Amino acid sequence: MSWFEPTFILQTRYITGARKIITSGYEKLEQYRDSPFVVRRYDVDISVLPNKYLNELRLYPNTKLSGVKAQVKNLVDKWTYTTLMIESNLHIRVLQNKLTAELAKYLDIAKTELNHGWPLDIPQPDDWIEVDMQQMMRMLVGRMSAKIFLGHPACRNMEWLKLSIDFSIDMFTAAFMLRMFPPWLHPIVAWLVPARYRVRRNLKTAERIIGPLMDKHRDALKRKAAGESIEEDDTLLNWMMDNGNEKENRLFEMATRQSILTLASIHTTSMGVANMLFDLCAHPEWFPVLREEIQQVEKELGKLGEREGAGAKQWLPKLEKMDSFFVESQRFNPPILLAPQRLAVVPITLKDGTHIPAGTRIACANWNILNDPSTTPSPDTFDPMRSYRKRHESGEFNKHLAGQTDKDNLSFGHGKQACPGRYFAVGEIKMILARLLVEFEFKYPKGKGRPSNFYADENVFPDPWARLLMRKRREACQACGRS
Questions:
Q1: Which CATH number does the domain housing residue 139 bear?
Q2: Cα(424)–Cα(99) distance, integer angstroms
Q3: pLDDT of residue 251
Q4: If DSSP codes are grouped into helix, strand and coil, which group holds residue 401?
């Protein structure tokens, strides 16, 4: 960066060079000791604060410092139908009060759909074949998410599954294109962005699919009130209807909210599995370590979900080494470089006098903090057992776990506004990877290695054209018919 560089060139460089720009600012932050710095995106300047402020900032309620409003601004809500996210927090309440509160139950429910989708989405090759692992994982995670959000048979509706995957891509594309222009041009540019029309079509499709589900639940409630015994899937949609107000229960509102929930529930989770497989293929010595742990748990409890006392609650916490591997994989491949992002709704003055004007967008340099030698010794070394050792050396077995946040690990946010579905996502990742590792072998195609990550502003995602080779494990063929 240079004082003489025109702003629009810096903003253009930020699109694909965000990591270098943020790192440059972070190094200056260290040099000048705890001084905030600013990165310039086309649509907004983001003030990057030292993470020493996080324990103070996390105490501010979302009425003063809002993560949701920051994310909605990232989505250019006025033109992408997402304003309802700041008008109501029903989508957050259902994750906090239903999904996380009954986590083990919903993971067990999702496991049944994993079993159904496995032979449909996962090939069973005896010899090496090249596969698009990311698309396979998106389909599996999409099925599992649809099972708990909408229930059966909607979770097997291919139109919904396609929508739930495509919606996120189209929404991100539309918002990204709009953010490349100043807000005063949005009324013109919005009509020229094809992805925005695809988003609208997806929402119309969502209304057509979700409308009958809402009618069915309303009918069930009436029949129950009349004394009939009615069985329904225990879905998050039903909870949202039962706990939503009249406006939140309008069809367009509910269909849009269900679609928006796919933004967080599918792509980041599927990327987590894909990145772990990419890292395992780059460090194949860890395949037998993780397989041995999985087989030890199976020896102790039986296969996941196949007998009493072998549900997600008992099974998944025992995958300690896999948990640690995920934390390290996410350190190298975080979903976002700047987190947690917040919008100052009111002026804020911190205890040391630092002033944050109303309307300021703030964040921390998540990737740089994760890879700072003062936070992570030998940060360039891929060491999957860092978290595992911390747990066992300290004796704090309920800490240093995937999904937990602190001021030095912000990939899932921090404080009360951290990602409310993060523990479900970690559980999905463990369930999928455990079965993949037991049943299959993986490696890179000849001449290929660990794919580089791609960047779109501060967002990080794996190379979408990256492929792996897979085949059934010879010694696992007897187990491939698991239910």
A1: 1.10.630.10
A2: 8
A3: 97
A4: coil
∠ CA 185-362-329, rounded to 5°:
105
Task: Indicate yes or no: pTM above 0.90.
Answer: yes
Determine the Cα–Cα distance for residues 272 and 402; give it in Å rounded to an integer.
11
Low-confidence ranges of the chain (pLDDT < 70): 1-5, 29-33, 476-483
Residue 473, token pair as written in the block:
């494990």
DSSP character string of 211-263: HHHHHHHHHHHHHHHTT--------HHHHHHHHS-TTTTSHHHHHHHHHHHHH
Residues 352-369: tens digit of each pLDDT: 999 999 999 999 999 999
Q: Is residue 2 part of a domain?
A: no
Alpha-helical (H) ranges within 283-311 are 287-301
Measured CA distances, 450 to 164, 283, 296, 469 (Å): 28, 9, 29, 13
Q: Residue 340, preceding bond cis, omega within 30 degrees?
A: yes
Q: Could you check whether the bond before residue 119 is cis, i.e. omega within 30 degrees of 0? A: no
pLDDT of the residue at 433: 98
Residue 309 tokens read as 């006392």
Residue 379: is the preceding peptide bond cis (ω within 30°)? no
User: What count of other Cβ atoms lies within 10 Å of the Cβ of residue 355?
Assistant: 10
Please indicate, yes or no, if residue 325 is contained in any of the structural domains.
yes
Domain that holds residue 117: 7-479
Task: Give the separation between CA 408 and CA 464, rounded to whole angstroms.
Answer: 29
Place of tokens 């063929």: 477
pLDDT at 9: 81
84: nearest Cα among 248, 266, 263 = 248
According to the model, what pLDDT value does residue 476 have?
Answer: 59
In this structure, is residue 267 part of a structural domain?
yes
CB-based contact 121:158 (threshold 8 Å)? no
Query: What residues contact residue 118 under an 8 Å CB cut-off, 6+ apart?
Result: 140, 435
In a domain, 1, yes or no: no
Which segments of 41-176 are extended strands (E)? 45-48, 65-66, 129-131
Q: pLDDT tens-digit profile of 227-270? A: 999 999 999 999 999 999 999 999 999 999 999 999 888 999 99
What's the structural domain count of the chain? 1
Please give the Cα distance from 132 to 462 (Å, whole number): 12
CA angle 5, 180, 344 (to 5 degrees): 85
Sign of CA dihedral 91, 191, 464, 205: positive
The secondary structure element, H or E, covering residue 65 is strand 65-66
Q: Check if the beta carbon of residue 47 is closer than 8 Å to that of residue 350.
A: no
